[in-house]
Amino acid sequence: MKLDSMYQEIILDHYRNPHGKGLRDGDAEVHHVNPTCGDEITLRVKLDGAVVEDVSYESQGCSISQASASVLNDLVVGKTVGEAQQVQEAFLELMQSKGQSEGDEEILEDAVAFAGVSKYPARVKCALLGWMAWKDATAKALAGHPEITTD
Amino acid sequence: MTYSHLTGLLDTDAIRKDFPVLSRVLHDGKPLVYLDNAATSQKPRQVLEALNAYYEQHNSNVHRGVHVLAEEATALYEGARDKVAAFINAPSRNEVIFTKNASESLNLVANMLGWADEPYRVDADSEIVITEMEHHSNIVPWQLLAQRTGAKLKWFGLTDEGRLDLSNIDELITEKTKIVSVTLVSNLLGTVNPVETIVRKAQSVGALVAIDASQAAPHAALDVQALEADFVAFTGHKMLAPTGIGVLWGRQELLEDLPPFLGGGEMIETVTMGSSTYAPAPHKFEAGTPPIAQAIGLGAAIDYLSAIGMDKVAAHEHAITAYAIERLAEVPDLRIIGPRTAVDRGAAISFTLGDIHPHDVGQVLDEQGIAVRVGHHCARPVCLRYGIPATTRASFYLYSTPGEVDALIDGLHHVRNFFA
């Protein structure tokens, strides 16, 4: 069934047991909304020098947006900001691929499960909600710490 | 399954043959079950043929032309105005203004009042009254007007049952109220509102009343004289017509007194480089080339609905809605947001399904060929009122069948199993 390509078991697992959910201490906080469906996320980024120490969030929304935030937490925490930004860009590229890309599992790990979602234009925004919030929060956190370089 | 206990059903086998899209088959052989009628209706062959005939035989700009096509196009366009006037029992065809949609109609009213002279002018001493169950199209234009004039925006709240809370009507509608704008039928809750109570109160303080009939005009007889309101707005595409055509009905003396909003071609009497005078209503409010084909399509849609009879359409939808409410009660964890009976209720039913997000509900239903709408339905304050982020909404029309209700129920059981 076509639906299984969107709702991969790995996505449903993250949806049922989200990783890193809950708000904790952070250097910057953002609130993003998907106006078409009302999905919301409040997300904080905590940096330790150039390393992403924590990504914490409170959110409400569909299984895709919730699972995506959970995978985001898995993938970027512990990486340098530069590495994490590469993952974010790879995920964005995958979601914009209209089902034409399978994603690079080396970089994206569990996030390749979202390849099927890219075939559903109405759901791409759901998958990107947490990631765009992270990008925005990270930019804000970096602006507060000009000494950190991400090269 | 037999449906002999349902009374007032239309001959949907015959009606559905007029709607080509309803015979579509989706996703590996699933027949389309179209339950998104509150968002937009499907179009019958008769409307599509009217559009084609216009473009193939009569296409021309309307008014002033002296050639054959211009005269034919004008007669068709103005003929559509006559059909709308008869459909809503307007005292005069000159009270029917064609717009792009109901949003434009309501924005037009707000802008007329913002630029009006006394006694209609909305200013810093004025109050505007709406309700918490309005579509954003009947909220945002009034917020804009309030922000630009300094007027105060007030609103009726909602009861837990999804009805308007009229208990504080005397505090809400006062001598300061210039305009009360309220929906006849909620697009999210399905509630049919007791607008006569509101109209009477508004009249007693000299306030104008605008009615958003977008979810009413497609589904039951609409009589603007019986409503006793001052303005009535609705849109064509929810009542079998194409997109891009809406209606604002307004009382003639108001349309004569109130200023135009958009300026341009067709809305003038004379123009010099210094100033202009304006055409009489309705043309004063129809600047530029209008949506000609779309208006003609609306006329054809009205012919189609009138041939069936709006009372019969209403009876059919009432039977389908009552059946749907009864069957939805069988689905565990399903909570209807809005009235839980078919009394004073339209054919849109919103619900939540446990903690499964409506996006996920809609996606799994789609896989079974069932089209519903998910989200806040452009009525986000209603979702906030009931403490939910969004709903799933099934909405019916004259071609909806009890079998489609059954398909929805089966689909919802499947959704629950999928996310269990």
Automatic annotation (TrEMBL), chain A:
GO function terms (MF aspect): iron ion binding; iron-sulfur cluster binding
InterPro entries: NIF_FeS_clus_asmbl_NifU_N
Domain NIF system FeS cluster assembly NifU N-terminal positions: 6-126
Leader sequence residues: none
CDD domains (alphabetical): IscU_like (cd06664)
Domain of life: Bacteria
A single GO BP: iron-sulfur cluster assembly
NCBIfam families membership: SUF_scaf_2 (TIGR01994)
PANTHER family xref list: IRON-SULFUR CLUSTER ASSEMBLY ENZYME NIFU HOMOLOG (PTHR10093)
Protein name (database record): Nitrogen fixation protein NifU
Native organism: Kitasatospora griseola
